[in-house]
Amino acid sequence: MREMDDADPLAEELIDLGRALPAPTVSPDLTAQVLARVTADEDVHVVGGARPATPGRRRWGRAKIAASIGALVGGLLLVPPVRATVLDWISLGGVRVQTPTTSATGSPGTSTPQSVSPRVTATSPVDEDESLSALKQARTRVGLDFAVPASLGGPTSIMVLHQGKVVEMTWGTGDSALIMDVLTGSLDYGFLKSARDVEWTDVRGNSALWLPGDHDLQWIDRSGATQTAPPRTARPTLVWVVPKDGADITYRLEGAATKQAALALAAEVGP
Amino acid sequence: MSEDPSAEAEAMDRIRAGDASAYAVLVAAHAGIATRLAWLNGAGGEAEDVVQEAFVKAYAALPGFRDGAAFRPWLLRIVINETRNRQRAQERRLRRDDAAARLDARTSFVRDPAETAELHDRHGRLYAAVSALPQVYREVVTCRYLMELSEAETAAALDVAVGTVKSRLHRAMSVLREELADA
């Protein structure tokens, strides 16, 4: 195994060091998780179908060109059915962004929350007290003291999705609504977007991702289980991660008019 | 973990024939070394994620494998790249104008005091010195000596020519010797 021409004492010491270092344990779930991910992938993208022209090396070359990858905190997986032959991955917090080389054929649909509790329906004007009380309940429900931009006031609606792991808040309604999702880093769920352009930025020193164009948004499960709802089209979105109490909270803010507006709102959500 | 090339080749055939579950054979065979490399190359607490990512990415490349091509060097290359990406991401999280903090992040990313506390004095200093090396030198020393990979495997894992491995290693060792002499 070793091809040492000369006996170099320092080399010998380094080899000893390598053998002395504690051996990290392999995760017992590793095989199961890898298989769940690759078998799911096989169903939907290209292992059985169109092959990358020159896989391996070319694919890796693209990954080098793609934006640097942030820490993947939440789980994420499952590629939605798109006719991409080579996929680049960018991840930040609980979000995985897939940028296909060909255009995605996913059609916009509406996402259906799997569990809704509690919900404050839109009235005009929003009853601040009721809204803030619902917010407090949501915090208790997910066990997370997340923040919201103070300047927006109480959300129009608050939903707790995916078995209590995601809080989705909305201000306003329709096309001009602002939507903010909060998910903890230890979640099984993340969401996948297919986007053409992504920009790295930061919110108070924490890495953030700005997706300037419309893109497909879909919730997925770390174990590889598909979501029943088809992807919906999301408007420009800012994603950022705030470290809190040793864990990472991922925020997703959709619907701000400009990147600057999104960044200003995000800056209000402090640790 | 001992390697069984024929079992591996058979598993790859089954995968190409459509039986994805045969990938379990490859995962079992290489999980140990992949985890070790991820950790030694600085993944720290993210080593499990790095390894999982690497196996998933390596799987996607299988259709293009030439018959008989070895899986392990390709897997290790992905592990190296994943750890590099995460280190870059960690550096990005710091203030861009704070060079000292970034340097600190780079060295602390690789060296985890809690994990190396058990090492006796000389090993501890050696490990610290390796951790403080510039990335290209640290990686080649990690592969060749800490992991005891062959020159050919190191070249594959780092995606460079064997000649480059030799020259980098030579320079890395000079830098290391100087580091240790100053200590």
TrEMBL record, chain A:
Residues 100-131 are annotated as: Disordered. It comes from the Bacteria. Residues 100-118 have a biased composition (Low complexity). This is DUF4367 domain-containing protein.
Automatic annotation (TrEMBL), chain B:
Residues 124-173 form the RNA polymerase sigma factor 70 region 4 type domain. GO terms for molecular function: DNA binding; sigma factor activity. Residues 33-93 form the RNA polymerase sigma-70 region domain. CDD domains: Sigma70_r4. This is RNA polymerase sigma factor. Belongs to the sigma-70 factor family. ECF subfamily. Keywords: DNA-binding, Sigma factor, Transcription, Transcription regulation. It comes from Nostocoides australiense Ben110. InterPro entries: RNA_pol_sigma-70-like, RNA_pol_sigma-70_dom, RNA_pol_sigma70_ECF_CS, RNA_pol_sigma70_r2, RNA_pol_sigma70_r4_t2, RNA_pol_sigma_r2, RNA_pol_sigma_r3/r4-like, WH-like_DNA-bd_sf. One of its GO terms (biological process) is DNA-templated transcription initiation.
